[in-house]
Design a protein that fits this description.
Layout (H helix, E strand, L loop, with lengths): L3 H4 E4 L13 E6 L6 H7 L5 E4 L8 H14 L8 E6 L1 H13 L5 E6 L2 H7 L7 E3 L2 E5 L7 E5 H5 L3 H18 L3 H6 L6 H16 L17 H11 L3 H18 L5 H15 L10 H9 L10 E8 L2 E7 L1 H11 L5
Parallel strand pairs: 1-8, 2-3, 2-4, 4-5, 5-8
Antiparallel strand pairs: 6-7, 9-10
Amino acid sequence: MRTFNKTVKFIKDLSDIHSLSRSECLIIYDQVLSQNLEVNAWLKKFSKTYGVEAGENLKELTSFSNHFEKIAKILAGTSRKIKIVAMGGGSVTDFAGFFASTYKRGVKLVLVPSTWLAAIDSAHGGKNGLNAGSLKNAMGTFYFPEKIYLVKSVLKAQPRERQAEAYGELLKIALISGKPWVNKVLEGKELKLWRLLPLAVKAKYDVIAKDPYEEKGVRQILNLGHTLGHIIEKKNSLPHGVAVGHGIVFASRWSEKRGLLKGENQKKIEALIKKFQNSKNKLKPLTKVDLEDGLRGDKKINLRGKIDFVFLRKPGKVFLEEVSIADLTDEAIAQGWAKV
């Protein structure tokens, strides 16, 4: 994998991207972005573009071959020197990353995440994935991009609710990192995403560098908040970052209950999540079947049929512990996330 300093570039606007050849790139982009005047003008500079409708449907395995065939026609006559440039949120970068890793056995990939959530989390780490029915990210590859451009003007153009959706992943990496900047986040004193972006992204790269291909189990700490979060996300059709926030609350309460996390730290975490999300919509309670089905299909389940769950001791001190599906289900019911 490439290092943080060599891969990630923080730039003011799209005019600062100088390394892309207009004839040797295919831009796969979220078609909604063409309504942005800056993006629309930038796209017109390239001879090969492919607009997609962002969302989980884009990542469906059943529709991928149709997209692949259309893109291959656009690329007819090009060599393996072609670069795939993905501009969009997590579904677009996942889709384009998987395409780049498989087209002609792999061509170069560049990412331009357009959402705060993708800029903080999903664009980094080299993972991509397609969904097979209800199985989220069931098929995917590790394929690290050549460059990732974080563009201030594009990110700042996002609606306010897109910012709120990123705070769950921001808090996750803050709790994993434990660096001095984290205290400002927990106290609610520093919540400006562009200012925090380099710190949050660097913190994720620090974890990834220790286990780039998930062979040692180190990267699994990045699943903090995701175990229950994914089930809540599916049940309530929530944005990923919002669901992860709920998952972090669950993990922090369980950690406090087990005497691992101080009550004052747990209260700060929960208060911050509530401040970020400001959600008026009440969550649908999970059923025991929702929990058991979701957990059995979870990628974090090990060979013994148990979940490697991420607990917290304090910011900067998170760890994995094997828990049974029954214990996790009972705790979710005890906390009120699910009903019997």
